[in-house]
What does this fold into?
Amino acid sequence: MNSPVPPPPPLYLANPKSTTNSKNISEEETPQLLSYDETGIDEVRVKVTCLPEWRSEQLSEETSTWLSVYTPVTAVLQNGPQCGIVALCMASQLLCPQVLTPDIVFDTAKSHKFTTYGEMFSVKSMCKLASILMDCEAIQLPDGLDDSETVFKHLDDGCPILVPYDKDESTAPCCRNGNKAHWAVVLGYLLPNVPPSLVSTLNQDKCFPNLYHKPKNVDLSSELTSHIQHNRSSVYVYAKQGKSKHLGVWSYQDLILSNNNLMEWQADKNEVNEKDMVLPDGGIKEGLSGQIVLLKQK
It folds into this structure.
């Protein structure tokens, strides 16, 4: 539980079930779609109010208008080097009537020789795997996260993005040359200093008057494109990954830098035999660096 943020009252985060192993996934643990919106807003409130920029505004009483766009999923935790496998499982909650389990994804990936232990070091292979399992559109974006117009339009539509990146000890993006390469599913974004002209189309948060949520039927991408491009350093993205059940709120600029710095990789001690890993020609620099996967229904 995070400490209360002055001056608002303390908030309590819903505790959706998550899985540590695909073998523990039961019918009762399948994500409940009817509770998504409410649970998602609770997650957002807790994380947003912990951000230094938000806290600073509250203390100075000079608040700006914040926009939150988030399509929630239930966390799926990884068992071994299966970060890409569970990221795809989480994305499937938004694309499939039958949510994928890690066992199903792993067995399919292994049968197509995309992986040995669950590692996914190729965006091309991830696209193929997603298409096989979900009969969806899986698009390898040529300019990656640098194509912010396409990225934010995709998130506005409620569609997930699979992003390889370098993780630090807290699983947030960092730049370690790819030695801690990891996968996350990006599910939305958070933007401060939103133009006042947009407020009339948004839903005001019940707890925080300067926080607004985008209704599903509102398209903001065309109006926000220029604003986001000129304020990229202040934009955050929402993400989940297989090392934690909690929502991550990361600097978009940090994630771009992390995604672009994937040059080499080394296995964690005693985790797997690195020689058996499936690596593309050119290693992770060729397979992951500067690349992302856009997923959407056909």
